[in-house]
Amino acid sequence: MKTTKTIFQEGNHKWIAIVRDPNKPGYIIDTNEYLVTHGGRGLLLDPGGAEVFPAVFSALSTEFDPSLLSGIFASHQDPDICSSLALWLEFNPQMRCYVSWLWSSFIPHFGGTAETFVAIPDEGIDISLEGLHLQAVPAHFLHSSGNFHLYDKIAKILFSGDVGAALLPPSEDALFVEDFDKHIRHAEGFHRRWMGSNEAKRRWCERAAKMEIDMLCPQHGAIYRGADVQRFINWFDELQVGIVAA
Description:
Blueprint: E1 3-10, E2 13-19, E3 33-38, E4 41-45, H1 53-61, E5 69-73, H2 79-82, H3 85-91, E6 96-100, E7 117-120, E8 126-129, E9 132-138, E10 148-152, E11 157-161, H4 180-194, H5 198-209, E12 215-218, E13 224-225, H6 227-238
Parallel strand pairs: 4-5, 5-6, 6-7, 11-12
Antiparallel strand pairs: 1-2, 2-3, 3-4, 8-9, 9-10, 10-11, 12-13
């Protein structure tokens, strides 16, 4: 089963990371799921694939009543992002799924009805959770053509999907980045190949550098915090990504 770690709490406002399942099969990529709770309701970010649903559901249930989930935020369309959608909806059919308009007619192949989906326009929207306003931030072409991150200005946390992701070896699976120079080696190949556009990367770095971010939370790997957030933005800004030699 995965474990839960509270990474931010202020009153009834909380961020919980759902991470690291020692029983996960080695042939599937490890994923981080995040739960934002506020005022007794919850929003689940990139809930993961169908194969990890039991581990995510069990871990989440130790911290929060799943029947109080209001919705799912899907950063993009990949199976490791939200192929578990039908299983979550089977438990709670009232949940909504926030996703780029570009994928709002593709993701229903994972489950749901027309009422399930809230299509996010390219410029982004604010998502309300019991009075808390979370900002869907454009991150298109990083690495999906319709891609969003989620910013919480109160917690100063940016959920960054695949940006910041690292493919960590089993011996280096700490929740937070402890040694940036050592850690970033595991992120370089991922970003060079999966990020499609240097122009999109530059725009994202400019936008992120202007935001107050205490924690940058990717879907794979470890969380950047403190000074490592800006170190990552600077590193990413310098990295050449995109087209590879065939």
